[in-house]
Each structure stands twice: as structure tokens, then as C-alpha cells.
Amino acid sequence: MEKTDILSLSLEELEQLLIAAGEKKFRAKQIFQWLHVKRVMNFDKMTDISVQLRQHLKENFCINGLFMQKRLESAIDNTVKYLYRLSDGNFVETVLMDYNYGKSICVSTQVGCKMGCNFCASAIAGFVRSLEPSEILMQIYETERDAGTRVSGVVLMGIGEPLDNFDNVLKFLSLLSDKNGNNLSLRHVALSTCGIVPRIYKLADMKLQLTLSVSLHSPYNDKRSEIMPVNRTYNIDELMKACRYYIDKTGRRITFEYAVIDNVNSSDKDADRLAALLRGMNCHVNLIPVNRVKERNYKTARSGVADFAKRLGQRGINATVRRTLGSDIEAACGQLRRDAGSKGGTDN
Ligand code: SAH
Predict the structure, then answer these.
(1) Distance of alpha carbon 292 from the chain centroid
(2) E strands along 117-265, which residues?
(3) Which ligand 1 atom lies nearest to the CA of residue 292?
(4) What pTM did the predictor assign?
(5) Catalytically annotated residue among 23, 93, 161, 257
(6) Is residue 211 within 8 Å of 191, Cβ to Cβ?
(7) 231, 50, 79: which is closest to 151 by C-alpha?
(8) Which of 60, 155, 165, 317 could form a disulfide with 312 if both were Cys (CB 3.0 to 4.6 A apart)?
(9) Which domains are assigned to the chain?
(10) The one catalytic residue among 106, 243, 283, 333
(11) What is the mean pLDDT of residues 145-170?
(12) Does residue 23 carry a catalytic annotation?
């Protein structure tokens, strides 16, 4: 019989399973706290639990651990990139960022990605599978253990499309914020999507307090469809309608991610159209210089991002320029995993 992945279970689910095994309900909370508060990932070390119950746990449950394959620390800004190996031999990346208000962590939600954005290293490497809630959570627990500190913010902006792994991502969010467990407010969490419209509606209806980031990258359908195939299914009008709905339902401001690419999306005309699209919306634009991937010739001129921010400002749209962190440790997102895969790893 396959063992149950205990770190993916809610407290209620663990209670049900223990009650069914003839145990007392409160045992579940003890175990849940060993895992999610004390971070003890070994049933034998859960000392306030009977030997008999520990034996039952060992026989019926597993702790889905991650193994640190690689760790790269930036000499410039304290950013640390981790390559974690999952229990089935696949790899994911996690990035720990040091801001002046605290540490923030960027986690992956899938091994690879199906969305096919043509400027993204993760898409170029292809899709393997979605992550379990425990595998998303353990990226945080392992990184916090390594860094010897707790993070104050979490962003779902690593490899994968979170809304393409909807149920597991939601389960992860509820574990992350569980008052009996890790207890991080979702106000400190941002989820980034390429724009899977029906899932944005679904998420809006849940009225979570997280920040939704939407990767826009062009205000024109023809251009956006060229660089982000998801736009062929859900175009900009539909996406904007869903974003407005999200803002109405949750009362939260949306962030639009925009990678500035020379000769693709940063002309005066782009600024005009983007400003028209966003005018009056409770939103914020985050400009990023495009990370180079070796398959593409995309680049951002040194002054490109600041120029585009200025253009938007002149049109009444506030945009911030995202700091580039960890520029000395292995280029764009997705590249560590891809390199590991090509060295006899697990890429298809
Ligand atoms: N799938 C989600 C989250 C993962 S990517 C999404 O699409 O939003 C996180 C962010 O990095 C997205 O805004 C994505 O468009 C951006 N990104 C991916 N590759 C990039 C690159 N080469 N340069 C700059 N930003 C990139």
C-alpha cells in the first residue's frame, strides 16, 4: 500500500485518518505542530507521542522531503538560489531574496510548465508534472532551515503556472496560513499567473487576501499571443474583465508584471495602449528587464526599463522597476533545473 503524504494533509484530514485508526483526535494537532511548527521531519523524534502511534505513522505515512542539489549565493545582494531534488528525482528551483524589510521566497509550483511563454526558460524546458502541496511547502521549510531564519513573504513566481495546479496550490496556501501550523498571513503572499481566466474568477470568489500578479507583457493581442500562447485562448479583453472582477470581489490591488523587451513591447505606442487599458483600475505595474535565455535574442537596453516607466508615468500610470536580484548567480528562472536535467537528469 502506498503511504500517505502527511505534509499535504490538512489538520482535519489528519484528524479523520487518526480517528479511523482508533487514535484520539488531539494527537493529530500534536503531530501537525511537530511538522509545521517545530519542523521535525522524523516520526521517531516526536517524543510526546506513544511508540505505538509512531510505529503506525511510520507504516502508513511518509514525509515528502526535498534534497538540496545545489545552492548558489550571490556575492552582490545575498540572494540564494536553490536547486532541490524531489523524491522522484525531478528538480525544482527556489530563490531566497533579501529585502530591507525581510526575507522573501520565490517557490515553484510545477516541474516545468505547459504555458509556452516564448521568453521563459521554464517553458522552453517543457512540462513534467505538477507539485504536491507538500513539495511546495517543503521548499519553504528547507530554505528556512538552511538560512536559519523565517521568511516574511512568499511569492509563487518560480517554475510553473500556479493556476494550472489549482487544487494543490490552494491546499498549499491553506497549510501555509494555518493558525495551528505555519501561520503566515496570505497578505504576505503573491501568486503570479499568465492569465488563465476561468481560474482567476474561481480564485476571486474565494476572496483570499493574497496579491494577484498577472503577467501581461504586451497590451496588444497579436503581440501577446505571439509571446504568450495562453492569449490565444484567453485574450486581453477577457483577461482584463477577469482582473476587474478580482479587484471588485477581493478589494485587493492587482500587480501587472511586464518584462520590457526591446523592439517587442516598449514603444510609445505600447505605452499609450497599456495606459488606456489600465486607466482607472486599482492596479500597479511592475517592470522587469527581460532575463536573457540563450534560445532567444530578447534583450532590454540599459535604459529601457526606466524609459518605459517614464513613458507610463507621463500617461498617468505608476510603474515600479523591479530590482534585479542575484544577477551573478545563473541568469533566468528555470535555468538551474534545465541544466540539471540535461546532465543526465529527468527532463523528457
Ligand atoms: N506562470 C506564472 C509564474 C511564473 S513566472 C506567470 O506566468 O506569471 C514569474 C514571472 O517571470 C512572470 O511574470 C513571467 O512572465 C516572468 N518571466 C519569465 N521569464 C522571464 C524572462 N526571461 N525575463 C523576465 N521575466 C520573465
Answers:
(1) 20
(2) 129-130, 153-156, 189-193, 211-215, 254-260
(3) 22
(4) 0.94
(5) 93
(6) yes
(7) 79
(8) 317
(9) 4-62 (1.10.150.530), 67-342 (3.20.20.70)
(10) 333
(11) 97
(12) no
